[in-house]
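Checklist before submission:
- one chain only
- standard amino acids only
- sequence pasted in full

Submission:
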Amino acid sequence: MPELPEVETVMRGLTPAMTGQIIAKAQVNRPDLRWPFPERMRERLEGKTVLGLRRRSKYILADLDSQETLLVHLGMSGRMMVSGDPLGQFVHNHPAPEKHDHVVFDMANGARITFNDPRRFGAMDLMDTETQDSHKLLRVLGPEPLGNAFHADYLVAALDGKNTPIKSALLDQRIVAGLG
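Returned file contents:
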């Protein structure tokens, strides 16, 4: 499973191809991955501008101009691949679709973003940007390990009264998000 550093690297790789760009076409090639895709996902994404990308724990979050946020989890074997010409030329070098290319975004700048996941443990969801902190996958997460909210006093308080090995505690996403 991609860990926090890999997810951060993927998010940073997607940023130049997606930020400020319109999703000209969204292709959803199956009804689900780990969970069913949100209702009308294709329609809710097409024509929307990606305002920015961020990472929360092991999730990539793409804020859209529709006041929705696309949540992406890579699962065990998921990959986000960028192909094509992000400068918007007419000839695009897009590879032929592969068997496990489950979601494809054609951006207005000519880039193609392909989510490939052979094991289908990945996930995508759309949520209201304003209330995303209450989303079922995000609301239980502890602070980021490199964020200001994660410090010695926090960790002492979070572990107080727990009789668990330190490794297990650090892997608990409710205590610290994104590790393990």
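Reviewer check: Strands lie at 23-28, 50-56, 59-64, 68-73, 79-84, 101-107, 111-116, 123-128.
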